[in-house]
Amino acid sequence: MPNFKKEISPILITLFILVFSGLIMILPSFFTKGVSRTEVKNAIDLPYILDTPKDIELLFFGYAGCINICTPRLESLSTWYTQFKNRSRVGVRFIDISAPEDKTLPMEFAQAFNKEFIGVYLTPPQIREYTRPFQVYFSQSLMDSTEFDHTANLYLLKREGKRKVLRYIYTTYPFDFKQIDLDIKELLNE
Q1: 99 class by beta-carbon count within 10 Å (0-12 exposed, 13-18 middle, 19+ buried)
Q2: Which pLDDT value is given to residue 61?
Q3: Within 13 A of 78's CA, how many CA atoms are on the CB side?
Q4: What gap in Å lies between CA 104 and CA 108, rounded to an integer?
Q5: DSSP string, 77-142
Q6: Distance CA 5, CA 18 (A)
Q7: Is the dihedral of CA 35, 128, 161, 59 positive or negative?
Q8: How confident is the model at residue 2, as a pLDDT?
Q9: Is the N-terminal amide bond of 174 cis, ω within 30° of 0?
Q10: Measured between alpha carbons, how far is 96 from 122 in angstroms, rounded to an integer?
């Protein structure tokens, strides 16, 4: 008569490990569904952020020529922005983290998606200064030295008097534009 304990135990253990590891991969999405942003209130006192007349500014950090991260996000942002009714009070800035040799490249890249987007060129010291308050991660890719790995968040700032305050960080993609619309509407009515 076979000993089922000895034969079933390895199979059960393997099955348990597979089910448990699958749950670990799936369960977080159930608990974070709908949580696409972080609310903050940090004053940002940086010249390229303060020099805009817009009440609300959306910032995206990336680099000109980025195909995998920047392009789809800027395309979706442009589609949303084109349909957005209050563009006179809300702006979009693309902050380049690569300090390209051609200083016009960030503006050209941003405006390839939408003529109203502003592309911002920064020097290497300015890049460190601008990424620090937003906790933007970036590093040169190990696979291709012409590319960068970087944070792909969208940052919403609101003018409060003579300063800009970081209010929301949108962390998931695709961006939840219904939530962004609600946030902007609420902030503009404060």
Answers
A1: middle
A2: 97
A3: 17
A4: 6
A5: HHHHHHH-TTTTTEEEEEEESS--SSTTHHHHHHHHH-TT-EEE---HHHHHHHHTTTT--EEE-S
A6: 20
A7: negative
A8: 57
A9: yes
A10: 7
Closest of 62, 65, 60 to residue 77, by C-alpha: 60
At residue 135's C-alpha, the angle toward residues 133 and 140, to 5°, is 120
Note whether 177 and 38 are within 8 A (CB). Answer: no
Do 58 and 155 contact (CB within 8 A), yes or no?
A: yes
Residues in the chain: 190
Of the candidates 97, 88, 141, 86, the residue with the CA atom closest to the CA atom of residue 119: 97
Token couple for 139? 């590093």
User: Given a cut of 70, is residue 32 above it in pLDDT?
Assistant: no
How confident is residue 8, by pLDDT bands cut at 50, 70 and 90?
low
Question: Distance between CA atoms of 73 and 3, rounded to whole angstroms?
Answer: 58
At CA 174, angle to CA 98 and CA 178, rounded to 5? Answer: 120
Pair of tokens at residue 112: 């390839």
- Which amino acid, one-letter code, is at 172? T
DSSP 26: H
Q: According to the model, what pLDDT value does residue 18 have?
A: 43
**DSSP H or E segment with residue 72:** helix 70-83
This model's pTM is above 0.90 = no
